[in-house]
Design goal:
Elements: H1 2-29, H2 34-42, H3 48-52, H4 77-87, H5 93-105, H6 119-154, H7 159-173, H8 176-187, H9 211-230, H10 233-249, H11 252-259, H12 264-276, H13 278-282, H14 284-293, H15 297-302, H16 308-318, H17 321-349
Helix pairs in contact: 1-17, 6-9, 6-10, 6-14, 6-17, 7-10, 8-9, 10-12, 14-17, 16-17
Amino acid sequence: MGAYILRRLLLVIPTLLGIMILNFALTQFVPGGPIETIIARMEGGGDVFESIAGGGGDANVGGQEDSAYPGASGLSKDFIADLERQFGFDKPPLERFLNMMWNYIRFDFGESYFRSISVVDLILEKMPVSITLGLWSTLIAYAVSIPLGIKKAVRDGSRFDTVTSAAIVVAYAIPGFLFAILLIVLFAGGSYYRLFPLRGLTSANFEELSMIGKVLDYFWHITLPVLASTISAFATLTLLTKNSFLDEIKKQYVITAKAKGLSEKKVLYGHVFRNAMLIVISGFPALFISVFFGGSLIIETLFSLDGLGRLGFEAAVARDYPVVFGTLFAFSLMGLVVGILTDITYVFIDPRIDFEGRG
């Protein structure tokens, strides 16, 4: 197992490098950049897309007809050159990429171009929202889907199985943002009841509340966004659990255990459970990371939550490259490490699995 983990760790390096090279190369061909964003704001457009289209100012103070930046007609060459030096765009792309990767290897992700805050501090600032949505959505999905999947496997083909299958398929088909809008309309003062707040993770007087009051206030605020984030996760996990149990129930060792007189409950939870839950439990790290880092921009926007989803979108639109590439590097690295942890979880749950034998 040690040699297998070492090989996987060594593969992380070229994989991560390939991800960064591909995304860095793409940014060299995408119109716009941080300098264009600043020019658009200074020229009064306020939108990087207007500057790309040539919608900048009308004045020609600096004589910039041949400027590389559309919309920069009112700015001097010295000012543009100074901007390029500040952002490092006076260097060739290869040098900029190598400098960036050298800093990232040392976990120095730099500072946001437009927020005057380090990328690490910015991520930590948005982390509570992503932790809330990712952690609770994952836990609720497992808490509901595993018991439901087991019961569906035991009662396969029954009316209960048919009705619940129809319900989870419908839930899976409903987009999360549409379900979020429905929850807002029904329960957040949209048109009917005002039972839940519409914005933030806590109330304005959160610090003044007692410990129990803080806990209740926190859960009061997260109920609707967590439900909206979880609605589509039930179907896949429930059906995965059901099919895993059905596969195990049909195996010979289960028939033998029943022939020995063991009760159905003991056979199910004493023999079948460990084997059937292997694929479900081992997938927990990957599922949590995917929900955690794949924060829903629309869910966060609808419930006025400032999380990683909105951070990534705003950074991409503003061409805030330190945030874009810093988060890409950190999250890609975590995703690759989680893949290794998933394999280790397989072995921990079932020691019979030997990844060395696949080598």
